[in-house]
Design goal:
Largest interface: A-B, 42 and 30 residues
CATH superfamily of chain A: Amidase signature (AS) domain
Strand order of the largest sheet of chain A: 2-4-6-5-10-11-9-7-8
Number of strands of chain B: 17
Structural class of chain B: alpha+beta
CATH architecture of chain A: Alpha-Beta Complex
Strand content of chain B: 15-25%
Distance between the termini of chain A: 34 Å
Number of domains of chain B: 3
Strand content of chain A: 5-15%
Radius of gyration of chain A: 21 Å
Oligomer: heterodimer
Largest sheet of chain B: 10 strands, mixed
Bound molecules: zinc ion
Helix content of chain B: 40-55%
Number of helices of chain B: 15
Order of helices and strands of chain A: EEHEHEHEEHEHHEHHHHEHHEEH
């Protein structure tokens, strides 16, 4: 068995003494830590040493967290093939992991590891120092054993950053734990998300829904007929953004420069051509196709995105939190195709498209209960984590 | 067949902000290569752009100076193109939602009637790196200097309203003046802070069709703009007349050969919005604030100079063509110099002297208060015009005050009639023929006699007194 960490931090002792003192947080190499080999899982960045800490990393250090190192990741964090997200938690080498969530990776990886996976609201955590792929869809997610740990990490890292002006000027939710136990939150089951499941999976989710109702949760069905469009919108916008912006990973000033080119222009083109792996190349080709050959499809996807955002906001008004199945991510085994990833993550893509927070609670260790995904309106992150705790409490009471 | 040209311009202006567009690096492209760089302008992984407020304000002033309308909402996009001067593979530019739309400049056509040349839109973008091609022994090497990467630019895209090289040249001149007035750029075609590209097509005169256009780049002076456009029109007309089809492409102007040559196209496609730069929302208050901050524009200044100082339209326009010149003129007038001598000495003495020394007015060794001192001495008849010219030249080399130079060199004018009388008598006695000519009404002869007296005085005599005395004596003798 190879080591858990692709890069082990020789000096994991925290710089600060704060609320996260002693908490071990594993990172992936698409989040810059000064001097660490931030290769983002791509040949294009082989040997690239991060010049400075990402804002998230700096804030973790200041809050007293220990950073044991980088774990293995898929190329630019897209999908989970080749990723070992969750392993450090499973093998008790870390108390939490930070994993980029482009399609649901952080949430699904957590569920696979028997932990909670949280994707914060878009714009709540800084992107400075994040080596990204799909800028408007991806957010740094958090994997940890309990919502309380996730809450502590968010309290330390969330909020305005003078290095990231893309963050909206809006109040940071109060992540302090709720003082009094509120009434049980109402859950809105998104019917159309269940249609994406196999019959067996859907039945397991229905059983869970029943047991939650018996535990005193108000459970109602809510409907978003356009839910299947999330995959289409994600596919077009995600691939176009990736295609347009990955040119910046030039593999010339770092990474392997292509040998044998006759001139500088050719050298640049060949280096770019050799930099990326087959799965990413397929993604970039799709994006280039939409950008250069079907631009109107991209524009339509942007319009549909706005419509989906409004639809999900309406749903959020019908219940305290939304509840959906978690999905399994892409299948293991064969090299995945982009289509496998969009299909495997179909229940989780919506939160990347809308920018709303989403939390997956792990399945019961014995498999008697499936994982469940909760979601709330943008910036309702604290309420969502509190609801997650309520559900976990209820599950404990059941067992 | 008679043809007419259809011309549109794309003009890049490098803003003179202290820092770059998306980071705090100094905006000094000419420094030692790669000195002014950081992870953001080197476009390293993980860097985030941060829009400079100063650049946004200067860009807004450019828009207002050209009468364009600032848009309440604008945004940056990724303009994808692959070329080694842009290792990031995309340039941040405002392709879909530009900073301003509309505007334009009204010129006087050759016929004398007013002619409006419209602007389609104005957007901001970041400059790319500079490529340097060198030889390392016998091996050619290419170097990339990122000092210019991320420098703040605005691009002004006109409507295809231009019909002649002259209109393009006049437009660029007027645009340059306005942007200099706005204090946003020195707009030098020579150093590249102003870059003009022209899109040119030709069609039968009177037709409304828009034919395939050719883009011309690399015009490094106003004259090149005119020459290159004229040449390209000729080339296209000749091509069409021989039945050739004009294809869409880009050509470079070669001022040595006085010809355009085709260049390799850069691959570029539609732009995708960049979510890492937030949309720019300009409130009505902010736009009003910028309008209030816009300095007086050249036409308004010319009008004011004409009324305040009794100048003609041509005179006041000549003074207003450059904000530095207009400012210098106003400083002279403010220093108690009458408007006409102030204008005269500024335009015909100071500027040519600066040009000879390859100096800009802003770097003039003779400050306005010094020149005003000299012109006041001239007005008080303490020195004559010849002496004043000599003193000015000396002020250039020594930097001394005019009073000091006049005293040291003994340039004080002799205006006392008694002191001049002996010299005048000598001149009359020595030149009887000239005296006779004066009596016969020949003006030239008077000039000759004045010159004789002036020479005898060592150039210090007051020519007005000499003339008065000569006239009196010749009349009295006759
Ligand atoms: Zn910089």
């Amino acid at each position: 068995m190879d080591s858990i960490f692709l890069h082990s931090n020789p000096d994991p002792a925290p710089a600060g003494d704060g609320p996260l003192r002693g908490l071990k947080v594993a990172l992936q190499p698409n989040l810059a830590a000064a001097g660490w080999p931030a290769g983002a899982g791509s040949r294009a960045l082989a040997g690239y040493l991060a010049p400075e800490d990402a804002t998230i990393v700096r804030r973790l250090r200041q809050a007293g967290a220990m950073l044991p190192g980088y774990t293995r990741m898929s190329e630019f964090g897209w999908g989970l093939q080749g990723s070992e997200a969750g392993r450090a938690l499973r093998e008790h080498a870390a108390d939490a992991e930070l994993v980029l969530d482009l399609a649901g990776e952080s949430r699904v990886a957590a569920a696979r590891a028997g932990a909670c996976g949280f994707k914060p609201s878009y714009g709540l955590v800084s992107r400075f120092g994040l080596i990204g792929l799909m800028p408007s869809l991806e957010v740094c997610g958090v994997l940890a054993g309990t919502p309380a740990k996730i809450r502590g990490i968010l309290q330390a890292v969330a909020g305005q950053d003078e290095h990231d002006f893309s963050m909206a000027d809006e109040p940071v939710p109060d992540f302090a734990p709720p003082k009094t136990k509120a009434r049980r939150p109402s859950l809105g089951i998104v019917t159309e998300a269940l249609d994406l499941m196999s019959g067996e999976q859907a039945q397991a989710f229905r059983d869970l829904q029943g047991s939650l109702a018996r535990s005193g949760f108000i459970v109602r069905e809510v409907s978003c007929p356009d839910f299947p469009l999330f995959a289409l919108v994600h596919r077009i916008i995600g691939s176009v953004e990736a295609s347009s912006s990955t040119g910046r990973y030039d593999s010339v000033r770092y990474g392997p420069r292509a040998p044998g080119a006759r001139n500088w222009n050719e050298m640049y083109l060949q280096s770019r051509g050799a930099a990326f792996g087959p799965l990413l190349k397929r993604l970039l080709f799709q994006g280039a196709f939409f950008q250069f050959e079907r631009y109107e499809a991209y524009e339509n996807a942007c319009r549909i995105r706005a419509r989906l955002l409004a639809a999900m906001q309406r749903l959020s008004a019908q219940a305290d939190v939304l509840a959906l199945p978690a999905g399994d991510g892409e299948p293991g085994g064969n090299p995945a195709t982009p289509a496998d990833i969009w299909a495997g993550f179909s229940p989780t893509l919506f939160a990347n498209v809308t920018g709303q927070p989403a939390l997956i609670l792990p399945p019961a260790p014995d498999g008697a209960r499936p994982a469940i995904q909760l979601a709330a309106a943008r910036l309702q992150d604290a309420r969502l984590l509190a609801a997650g705790e309520e559900l976990l409490d209820a599950f404990q009471g059941d067992s | 067949m008679d043809f007419e040209a259809v011309i549109g311009l794309e003009i890049h202006v490098e803003l003179n902000c202290p820092t770059k567009l998306f980071c705090d690096c100094p905006n000094r492209p000419g420094d030692e290569p790669n000195l002014n760089t950081c992870p953001t302008c080197l476009w390293l992984p993980g860097a985030q752009p941060r829009l400079s407020q100063a650049a946004l304000e200067k860009a807004a002033l450019v828009c207002l100076a050209l009468d364009a309308e600032l848009q309440p909402l604008s945004a940056f996009d990724q303009k994808v193109y692959y070329y080694p001067d842009l290792p990031k593979g995309y340039q941040l530019s405002q392709a879909h939602q530009p900073l301003a739309r509309g505007g334009g400049i009204e010129l006087t056509a050759e016929s004398g009637s007013p002619r409006m040349l419209r602007i389609h839109h104005i957007h901001m973008e970041e400059d790319v790196a500079r490529l340097v091609h060198e030889m390392e022994g016998r091996r050619p090497i290419s170097l990339v200097d990122f000092n210019r990467a991320g420098a703040p630019l605005v691009e002004i895209v006109t409507e295809p309203d231009f019909r002649s090289p002259r209109e393009a040249m006049e437009f660029v001149k007027a645009l340059r003046t306005r942007i200099r007035y706005a204090g946003a750029s020195d707009c030098s075609l020579e150093t590249g802070t102003l870059r003009v590209d022209a899109n040119i097509s030709v069609r039968p005169r009177g037709s409304a069709e828009m034919n395939t256009k050719v883009e011309i780049k690399n015009m490094n002076s106003i004259r090149h703009v005119g020459d290159a456009i004229a040449h390209e029109i000729e080339r296209q007309v000749a091509a069409v007349q021989t039945g050739e089809t004009v294809v869409l492409h880009t050509r470079l102007w070669d001022p040595e050969k006085k010809a355009t040559v085709p260049m390799r196209a850069k691959f570029a496609g539609p732009c995708v919005p960049d979510p890492s730069v937030p949309a720019i929302e300009l409130t009505a208050d902010w736009r009003a604030l910028m309008r209030a901050r816009l300095p007086e524009m050249p036409a308004a200044r010319a009008g004011r100079l004409a009324t305040q100082h009794g100048l003609t339209a041509d005179e006041s326009q000549a003074l207003s063509a450059d904000p530095e010149i207009a400012g210098y003129f106003e400083a002279l007038v403010g220093g108690d110099v009458a408007p006409r001598p102030a204008m005269h000495w500024l335009l015909t003495q100071l500027l040519p002297a600066l040009k000879e020394r390859r100096l800009e007015l802003g770097a003039s060794p003779v400050a306005p208060h010094r020149l005003a001192g000299l012109l006041r001495m001239l007005a008080r008849d303490e020195i004559n015009a010849n002496a004043a010219r000599e003193v000015l030249i000396e002020m250039f080399s020594t930097g001394d005050a005019p009073e000091v130079i006049v005293a040291a060199r003994g340039y004080q004018q002799v205006s006392d009639p008694n002191a001049l009388e002996a010299l005048i008598d000598q001149a009359l006695a020595a030149n009887p023929a000239a005296v006779a000519d004066v009596r016969n009404g020949q003006g030239k002869a008077m000039g000759f006699l004045i010159g004789q007296v002036m020479q005898a005085s060592g150039g210090k005599a007051n020519p007005k007194i000499i003339r008065d005395q000569l006239n009196r004596k010749i009349d009295a003798a006759g």
